methylmalonyl-CoA epimerase
Amino acid sequence: MIGRLNHVAIAVADLAAAAATYRNTLGAKVSEPEAIAEHGVTVVFVELPNTKIELLEPLGEASPIAGFVAKNPAGGIHHLCYEVEDILAARDTLKAAGARVLGDGEPKIGAHGKPVLFLHPKDFNGALVELEQA
Amino acid sequence: MIGRLNHVAIAVADLAAAAATYRNTLGAKVSEPEAIAEHGVTVVFVELPNTKIELLEPLGEASPIAGFVAKNPAGGIHHLCYEVEDILAARDTLKAAGARVLGDGEPKIGAHGKPVLFLHPKDFNGALVELEQA
């Protein structure tokens, strides 16, 4: 069912510093910051040859990553995003297998303009998993 | 400097269960477990089209991931591995930039038979980073 690893998301308190680490220290290609108000994050994309790292900073008081960053002030790996061909079919298969889909179980339009769902980390080895319809 | 994301490592207490989650629930191609005594882990490779997920279980009392799994009994994302062309050049550049290289700073032969180094998570947004000479 799952296809490519679309991205690894790292949540940070200071996006400018994190972007500088990837651009200058690790010598990667890093995009300009993009504020995505409806998702409560400002994001920078680290473009690797085979996938992306997304550096996320909380934006606004209702940011879904505010709690994570408060608990991990130095930052931390927040989630992994796998691509699927058909997100509704994937959801139904996962639910039938007993996996918990977060929220109301309906796909939302994610930061890339595509339907996404999040899966409970306790069902996936402690890793928060995002599925994105590719 | 950094190239491909070689793998994401997830450390777990129960490798058979984690492998079954990826094979059966997420429908991925999963290898048979491989015990790597000199690295203190048993590993299963989840082969995605563009990269790998490595599921790691502690092996032996001196396993370098035993403490992590004790702290995260449900499992958790342990590290990210980026490929570099020249690991000694990468190390020297990183050290000059003030990043901390773990251990004695000399590359070891990693689980794939290639030279690797680990970088301090506090210098990389809370993420433990492995560099592997590709």
Observations:
- The longest helix of chain A spans residues 15-25.
